[in-house]
Design brief:
Blueprint lengths: L2 H11 L5 H8 L2 H7 L1 H5 L4 H12 L21 E6 L6 H10 L5 E3 L5 H9 L1 E7 L5 H13 L2 E6 L12 H5 L4 H12 L7 E4 L2 H6 L7 E3 L12 H4 L11 E7 L5 H17 L4 E7 L5 H7 L3 E4 L4 H9 L3 E4 L5 H4 L4 H8 L4 E4 L2 H6 L7 E3 L2 H13 L3 H16 L3
Parallel strand pairs: 1-2, 1-3, 3-4, 4-5, 5-6, 7-8, 7-10, 8-9, 10-11, 11-12
Helix pairs in contact: 1-7, 13-19, 17-20
Length: 408
């Protein structure tokens, strides 16, 4: 896409802004010429060069010095644009970018080309930032939205306020320096002040951000119905529980759940010593490989590396029960119940700690199991392992709950 095309395209989207003004909204040409004297010597338009050549060559996008104040009227007939700096395979990007907010929207990742990003912003009535990182590019995007009168919303699916640093999974699990985490959280949370609206995935996140934004709404995580397995495709293989071991699965998106897992490590080891031939325990995702310990005891176990999202759902479907231990902290109370949704979509129930979002969707022994302490984890897991057929009806009920309340 040439500069003439991009400038004319942006002007057609916002005819209230002249092409000359648009050029100055895109690039600081003086700084660009200063950094790249070869471009100035060739007498090439700075914007022209960056859009057509500079970006592909790895040259720096010299952002113009825009103020935060609005300049142009708000666009009221535009689209909703979602922008995320998260990796494409991130659960937050998948849920919040495509499933919850994505219908009828333009979804852009951090790898979006300049022309694509600018076209999206200029065509937008609202831009939703997913877990934004406070850097020069993000500040430019926010300032540009302000200039164009584009509504700016922040989508939050975790509690990332710096005052809760001690409760963050990374801090408690010791996977990263607490000071480093605090500095990132302090810097990124400052972006909340620029938002016209905060969209929260849970009630607890919304409550803890009261007073920090002009408007706060709650939009819970949901899964598209096409990812839910039909009854005939998974219930049939749940009828042979008397003939085989119970298959347990621990899911973890990262090393930050190390402290959470410690809640049930002792319980699982005790059960593995008492009844090693009655169940298997597999570990999925980014976490320490605990399988060797269980195999040594004589309990079948394996580690399954992180897989693409839909492959993960297939892995869940191969098991009977998903384990969701969570420490009793405000941070975990603010977390979404996505593990319940994912497992239930495949007809697999979960046994979880009594964190708020799980407490709100699980009726104990009906569509899942809830545990308040180590004793309950032991007693309920022992019962399920001893009579694995109990997961059949509970899994059906979990599937019904998720389909009714957490599907789109």
């Amino acid at each position: 896409m040439t500069v003439n095309t991009i400038i004319s395209t942006l002007h057609s989207l916002r005819p209230d802004i002249s092409e000359d003004e648009i050029k100055h909204l895109i690039l600081n040409d003086e700084k660009y010429y200063e950094m790249y004297p070869d471009v100035k010597k060739a007498k090439i338009c700075a914007v022209d060069h960056f859009v057509r050549h500079g970006e592909a060559e790895g040259r720096q996008w010299c952002f113009p010095n825009l103020s935060f104040s609005k300049k142009f009227p708000q666009k009221v007939d535009g689209k909703k644009v979602i922008y995320s700096t998260l990796p494409a395979e991130s659960g937050s990007f998948i849920y919040r970018g495509f499933y919850v907010n994505g219908k009828g929207s333009l979804v852009l990742g951090n790898d979006a080309q300049t022309a694509e990003l600018l076209t999206g912003i200029f065509s937008a009535e609202e831009i939703i930032l997913l877990r934004p990182t406070n850097n020069e590019k993000m500040q430019y995007i926010i300032k540009l939205c302000r200039k164009l009168g584009v509504k700016l919303s922040l989508d939050l699916d975790d509690l990332l306020l710096p005052e809760y640093i001690d409760l963050l999974g990374e801090s408690r699990s010791g996977t990263i320096s607490k000071r480093q985490v605090f500095e990132h959280m302090l810097k990124d949370s400052a972006l909340i002040l620029a938002a016209d609206e905060i969209i929260c995935s849970t009630q607890k996140i919304a409550e803890l951000h009261v007073g920090l934004a002009r408007k706060i709404t709650i939009s819970k995580n949901k899964l598209p119905t096409y990812l839910f397995k039909k009854n005939k495709s998974f219930f049939g293989d749940k009828l042979d529980h008397k003939k085989r071991k119970a298959k347990l699965l621990y899911l973890s998106g990262g090393f930050s759940h190390k402290k959470d897992y410690s809640l049930i490590n002792g319980v699982l080891l005790r059960l593995a010593q008492e009844m090693p031939n009655k169940f298997s325990i597999n570990f999925f995702g980014k976490l320490h490989d605990y399988s060797e310990i269980f195999n040594t005891i004589g309990c079948d176990s394996k580690f399954i590396p992180l897989r693409p999202f839909e492959d993960m759902l297939d892995t869940i479907r191969e098991h009977d029960l998903v384990l969701v231990p969570l420490e009793n902290t405000v941070f975990n109370d603010a977390k979404s119940n996505i593990k319940f949704i994912e497992a239930a979509s495949q007809g697999v129930p979960v046994i979880a700690s009594t964190a708020s979002e799980y407490l709100s969707c699980i009726q104990d022994n009906v569509n899942g199991w809830l545990c308040e302490n180590e004793i309950e984890w032991y007693e309920k897991l022992r019962h399920i392992i001893s009579t694995p057929s109990v997961v059949y009806n509970v899994g059906i009920n979990a599937h019904k709950t998720a389909l009714k309340e957490f599907s789109i």
